[in-house]
Structures are given as C-alpha cells and as structure tokens.
Inverse folding.
C-alpha cells in the first residue's frame, strides 16, 4: 500500500549516498592526484498490484545504486619547488611497492628515506625500471627528465640513477581506491604515455563550484521528497482518523 | 549520514593547512628557515560494490564499483629544503651555506643538533657560538687580540692577530649532510635533530662534492615566498568554507528527516 513512501525512501537513501560522495570530493579538494567521483543511480522497476479502477500489474520505479564513476581528467599542475615533487601530465601512474603488493598513485610527492631510497609520504618505495631508486648523499642536485629518468649532477656531469616505472591501464576507471592516494589494480599494466614535471604536484581535479551546485541540487531533491513523504503520511493519518471515527 | 564526518575531516585538514601557512608567514624573516607544506591523502574507502564485481551468471561485470570515501587526512607536513636567498650583513661572524649541508651545533646536554642559520657570535672565551650560546662544532676559538677574521668558501677560518701581518688558520668549519634532510626533527631555535627517518649524519668539508660552500658576511634568508603563501591561505580558507557548507547542507537534510514524524 505504501509504495509512495517506499519510493520516496529509496530516493532519500540515494540522496544520502550522493551527499557522501560530494562530501568526500570536497574534503579532498587539496589532496594531490585525487580524482573526483560521482554517484550514479539506476531505475529498479517493480510490479505492483493494480489500484482500484485499473487492470493488469502496474510498474513503479525505485532508485538503486549503480556505481560511483571516477572522473580521470588531468588535475592542474601546481609548482611546489621541492626537487622530489613530480607531477604526471597525461595518462599513467607511479608504481609503488607496498607490503600488500604493487600499488599505483598519481600523487608525486616523494622524499628520501634513511637509506636514500625515493619513497612516498607513507615510506613505500617508488619503483624504477630496476626496483627502488637510491640517491646517495654525495649526489648533487636531482634532475627528473620528462620520461622519468632520474639523474644527479656530480662534478658538473649528469650521472643517471634510474628511470621511474610508470604504469597505465586499459581501463583506469576500474582501479580500486585504497585510501592513502593509492589504487589497487586487478588488471595487467601497460606502458604509460604520461610525461613528468619536476618540482610540481598534480592538484586534485575536484571543481568546487561544480560540487557545491551538485550539493544544493541533492539537498533540494531530498527536501522535495521529504515533503512528498510528509503529505503521504498526513493523508494516511487523516484516512485512519476519519474511517476509524466512532459514529455518534 | 557520512557526509557530516567526511566534511569534518576536510575542515580539520584545512585547519592544519592554515596553521602551516601561518607558521611559514611568521617565519618569513627567520634566518635559514625552510618553508613547510601540508600534504593530504584520501582516507579509507568502503567498498559497497567492488569494481569488476559480477552482475549476472553470464559473466557480465560492473564497470564501476561503489566506493564511498571517508574523507581526508594529513599525510605529512614536509619541509621544502630549497636554497634561501643570501643577504649581505657585513658581519664577519655571519656565514651562509650556499648549497647542501648543515652546521653541527653542540646542545647544552652534549648531543649534536644541526642548523642552517649561520648568525654566529663569540662567547667570552672567544669560541664561535650560536645566538643561544651553543658551541659550533668543531669548536673554533678566535685569539684574543684578533684584528680581522676571514672565512673562505671551503670553511677555513683565518685570523689576523695584532703584530703579525700573516693570517693564521684557527679552525675549519664543517658541514653535515643527511640521506633525507626532510626527515630531520625541528627543535625550534633554528635547530634540527637527527631521526631514524633522516638517516645518519655524514660530515664533510665545505666545497667538496655534495657539500655547499661557505659565504662569509652573508645570511641565508628563509625560503618562504609571501605571494605563494597568501595564495595558499586564500585557497585553504575557501576549501574550509566549502566543507562547512557541506556540513550545513547535511544538517538541513537531517532536519527534514526529523520533521517527517511531527
């Protein structure tokens, strides 16, 4: 009987979920390499008993989660001046070795660990063509070429230290986010076409104006549905009160 | 409603960001200060439907999963260790390091600390000390009746004593490098301590490969760029505001829910 209430409820659950996704985008507005997501919904059609005066089964549509899609467009390249900050321009990911296996990231803020290896903020070694890349204290200024070759200047000559291994995927939207700016892949990697910019970071591709207007839209849709539920509930209450009123 | 807690992580992160920027701006005129930057990471994700999950018996898979994030966290506050500009002071005991390397300073408890600030003075015994009176290592004593002191690019300290035309070498400044200088632990007073993350100190002579050179009569200014910092401050403030908007929107939705039953 209460299909309208249940349909409203499905929409309200969807609005909550949209709101969570928008909140996460806005919270990560200054996370380097972050890619914005949006919640997608689909119709779930259900057959119901015909109402009075109608014949045959009637269809009603509920709202159902279809997925969150990731916008993998390029973020702005922001200059930081730190020599081990690297921004990826184009398709591809840095390859990082974690205890759980290889992970991939677009966040190019790297530093050196106590052994001089190039690591992420969490201390995971960034992978070069031949494993981790080590910088010794006697190495001079670090140069990162656009193709990922890392070299240092020693006595005026360029000394090659290694080449970063960039990985791309046939379906980069299919990667799973793991937090900590890392992605896990369930598909084989392919060589990446991205170029590197040294001394910069790729900023998050969240567009604040877009997110705020989306948020207002979700909020208003929620309010409208809440009003609908309320009038439906009022209707039910009135009906019960009138029908159940004791005749004098 | 997750949106409330997600937005609060965003507000906390931006608050940290503003604090770091405020500290950079406050230290704009601190000798040898290195700009700091807050770095953020996304928090854990809740997998409601993993990407690639099967949607039918025939093997059709969902191209997109449903992953709801939990917000943002501060991953690190790191130091941008680029060279600061050199400022001429004409004070003979002001020395700046041009290139990599730290001065080694002995703390009151006998342990070593490291500093980029070369605004040194002499103590009553004629020893080269920092502004806190801590001795610069290895200890260099300037003779009593010295007329002039010169420090060359390689850190050799020469003093011309009254009655003797030829300067005599009274000491040699040394520089210390670390595998990861961003991993040093800042102590305040321009001093840094060695940590497991920084790696062990490696002393060397200024001007040798991998070590900077010494400039007498100069100080290294902070590498804070005020325009950059103000821009970052505006961005951080706006991001904070947006997160607070999310909180009020989520709150309004919850209020609507609460009104349903009335």
């Amino acid at each position: 009987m209460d299909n309208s209430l249940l349909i409203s409820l499905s929409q309200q659950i969807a609005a909550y979920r949209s709101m969570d996704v928008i909140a996460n985008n806005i919270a990560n507005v200054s996370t380097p390499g972050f890619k914005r997501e949006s919640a997608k919904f689909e119709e779930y059609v259900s057959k119901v008993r015909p109402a009075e005066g109608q014949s045959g089964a009637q269809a009603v549509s509920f709202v159902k989660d279809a997925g969150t899609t990731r916008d993998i467009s390029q973020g702005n390249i922001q200059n930081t001046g730190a020599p081990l900050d690297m921004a990826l321009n184009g398709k591809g990911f840095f390859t990082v070795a974690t205890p759980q296996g290889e992970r991939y990231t677009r966040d190019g803020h790297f530093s050196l660990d106590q052994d001089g290896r190039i690591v992420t903020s969490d201390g995971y070694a960034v992978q070069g063509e031949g494993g981790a890349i080590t910088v010794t204290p006697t190495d001079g200024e670090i140069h990162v070429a656009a193709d990922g070759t890392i070299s240092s200047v020693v006595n005026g000559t360029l000394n090659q230290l290694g080449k970063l291994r960039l990985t791309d995927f046939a379906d980069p939207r299919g990667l799973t986010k793991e937090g900590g700016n890392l992605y896990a892949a369930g598909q084989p990697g392919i060589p990446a076409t991205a170029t590197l910019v040294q001394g910069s970071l790729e900023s998050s591709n969240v567009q604040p104006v877009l997110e705020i207007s989306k948020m207002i839209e979700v909020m208003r849709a929620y309010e409208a549905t809440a009003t609908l539920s309320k009038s439906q509930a009022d209707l039910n209450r009135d009906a019960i009160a009138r029908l159940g009123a004791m005749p004098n | 409603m997750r949106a409330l807690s997600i937005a609060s992580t965003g507000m906390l992160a931006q608050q940290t960001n503003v604090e770091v920027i405020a500290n950079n701006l406050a230290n704009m005129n601190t000798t040898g200060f290195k700009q700091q930057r807050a770095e953020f990471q996304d928090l854990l994700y809740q997998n409601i439907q993993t990407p690639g999950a099967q949607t039918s018996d025939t093997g059709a898979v969902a191209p997109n999963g449903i992953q709801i994030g939990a917000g943002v966290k501060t991953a690190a506050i790191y130091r941008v260790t680029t060279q600061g500009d050199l400022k001429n002071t004409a004070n003979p005991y002001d020395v700046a390091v041009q290139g990599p390397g730290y001065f080694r300073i002995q703390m009151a408890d006998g342990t070593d600390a490291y500093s980029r600030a070369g605004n040194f003075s002499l103590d009553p015994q004629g020893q080269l000390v920092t502004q806190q009176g801590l001795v610069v290592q290895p200890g260099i004593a300037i003779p009593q009746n010295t007329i002039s002191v010169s420090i060359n690019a390689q850190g050799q300290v020469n003093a011309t004593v009254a009655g003797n035309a030829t300067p005599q070498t009274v000491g040699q400044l040394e520089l210390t490098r670390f595998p990861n200088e961003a991993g040093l632990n800042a102590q305040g007073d321009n001093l840094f301590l060695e940590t497991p993350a920084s790696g062990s100190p490696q002393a060397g002579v200024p001007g040798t490969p991998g070590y900077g050179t010494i400039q007498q009569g100069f100080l290294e200014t902070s590498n804070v760029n005020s325009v950059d910092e103000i821009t970052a401050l505006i961005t951080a403030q706006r991001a904070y505001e947006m997160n607070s908007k999310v909180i009020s929107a989520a709150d309004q939705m919850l209020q609507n829910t609460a009104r349903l039953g009335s």
Notes: Chain B touches chain A through 73 residues (CB under 8 Å). The CA atoms of residues 99 and 212 of chain B lie 4 Å apart.
